[in-house]
Amino acid sequence: MERLKDFILGDRHIQTLKEFSGQKDFYLVGGTIRDILLGVEPRDYDFAVSGSGIKFARSFARKIKGAFVLLSEADDEARVVKDDFIYDFIGLIDNDITEDLRRRDFTVNSMAINCRTLEFFDPFGGFKDLKKGILRPTSENSLTDDPLRVLRGFRFSLELGFKLDRSFFKLAKAVDLKGVAAERIGYELLRIMGAPASYKEILKMNELGLFLQIFPEARKIMEDDYLWGHSLGTYQALEKLLQQGFFRKIEPEFSTYFAVEKRIPLLKIAALFHDVAKPDTFLLKEGEVHFYGHDTKGAKIVKTLGYKRLKLPRSDVKMISRLVKEHMRLHLLATNQELTDRAIRRFFRDLEDDWFGAMMIAWADGYATAGWTRHLEEVFMRMIALKRKDDAEPKVERLINGYDLIALGLEPGPKFKIILQELFDLQLEGKIKSKEEGLKIALEIEKRL
Fold first, then answer.
1. Is the pLDDT of residue 1 over 80?
2. Residues of the chain with CATH 3.30.460.10
3. Residue 306, number of CB atoms within 10 A of its CB
4. In a designed cystine with 53, which of 91, 171, 256, 305 is the match (CB 3.0 to 4.6 A)?
């Protein structure tokens, strides 16, 4: 506890607030207290103040020439931002700090200290739970008061390394996420899936039926024990693959791909829902089961999940949709007895930056299906070797462009893209060495289309 008091006395932000507030009581509360007691430098400060939190924040923002942000008029909550530092303020109901703490999510976030008197408040045993590493809901209403707290509980468990108390799972069964804003759900889910070892928490969330609530469009696959079990297995395999194994040795490609923010959780979403359309495309033909087009239909479904259920930006949805659409392609390439350089180059061209993620999902899918991936690894190494070779060579200028085709008398249209790409493939393969040769072959291709 001395650590907390020393922090209060030595922190310049709190001293600035003390000078501003005069004799008015204000409390450092919530996650800020938790972080300080854990020895973690807080990223922002949460305060509870006597009287109106909004008025206090507005006045303080004027005093320090900071930006004022209204968070919730109903909850009397506002934020002040100054030089990238964040102060959050909430007004106390009837000036009662205990009542404020009772309304918070978990006991470890339900502690406070009076910044003027240094009196410590812990009416719900948060400090004891903190020392034991337990996440316990503050009250029986904690989760139903704000259903998003169920997801926050799983996130805190992963980020803090704490164990969720049994009471959490009991109370979580009564939670309904349907009214929660999709943006808030998306934020928490990506934080959960961004953790290095989230699989066990994903299983617990699944057992609580949370995915059924969040993703109703995926209900059919979740109700199929075999298909959903395979999807969860693919998620698990991908998570292990991210930590160790085949792809960690592929550098600098591995580090370059995952240097982009959010790629890990987005890749996990694509892995979890790569077969989402299989129930809709099931076909029994001559005693054999087929799922024709499940990749293409699945890409459309995950677009809905991304846009509607998680409110992800366009670039994120494009990534997961493309990975689902193309997840069968590498299996087909790997089993092709005559895999050509042209097919390999086309794969890299179509997948753009996501070729690495596509390979990882194909590997995880194969491992979850049969536990055998050697054939994939051999093909992947051949493909990557060709890409590295192509990337190392000077950029090849196309011998033929669209204007050349127009001059040849061809009418512009969708066929142009096909003709130009085939000509360029032939050029890369050394089968076209001059513009004259290219124009002659262009006419032959046009006749075929």
1. no
2. 2-132
3. 24
4. 91
